[in-house]
């Protein structure tokens, strides 16, 4: 079967949406005889090495990107929405120079995860699939109090975009033409128009993590430090990731526990968290981005992974942490569709709970975890 796939993000060992696109690529390559993958330029040498190791020889890459000046706009809040949208539209004309209508037997659009970005890939095949898509998750209004003013504006604008996207003819055409649509969460399925919901299926297992991607020989790492509760976050530094919940809980626990909070990753909201941590003299280390393969040493040497995403779709890092037997602290809206390793989940209830009550719950979990490891807390 001759297949074409498009993916705005598609790269191994990058996590998040990059990994989503990459895993979709690997799954399609295993099913078809001839696969064309069109994506943005990335580390081709790394991809070709993986393909040689896996014995994949049926895949050809096409690279397409917007001018540097346009891509530079993506650093702004508006640009993060506009640039991927433009890429999807201009991609159609890029492909139109090479392929004719219905030239392929199957077309698949993977990543960017949001349904708000259109796809015209259906023009090149009578059978079009799309997914996994997300972004139907809505942050409860009361949660906005933990955001900065900039973050609150962004979340309100996102709420508006979630619904106005369904009057966009380009978005609607892709949703209409698709025979099957994979959705990451039930919240995304529920926000789709009724005619789309009928052909949407839940795809929570798209978070695929290969143990071979990590150094998981735990004997190579030092034993966890006694007398210290070591917390870990890995991911993009965005306000909706819920890091502020943890910072506020740690502030509440001042003098009650001895802790270290390690944050790995970069993102536009790093300054928000860093300023708060410095203001209240919290023991937080911002280590920046780390190679994915090197994360095992952090997963293995910490006591609790925190992933309090307010957009409610879980993450690759949650799966990676549980793969390393590291317990995960999450909100009940973070992991609604049961990813894997549920016995390692510590869930914070948010239904009918105020922000203060949620922070109190988190603080109590951290205190209990510390007391479990160290029977006599510093101060009760």
Automatic annotation (TrEMBL):
Enzyme class: transferase
Segments forming domain Glycosyl transferase family: 223-371
Coiled coil: none
GO molecular function: glycosyltransferase activity
Entry keyword set: Glycosyltransferase, Transferase
InterPro entries: Glyco_trans_1, Glycosyltransferase_grp1
Pfam families: Glycos_transf_1 (PF00534)
Matching SUPFAM superfamilies: UDP-Glycosyltransferase/glycogen phosphorylase
Name of the protein: Glycosyltransferase
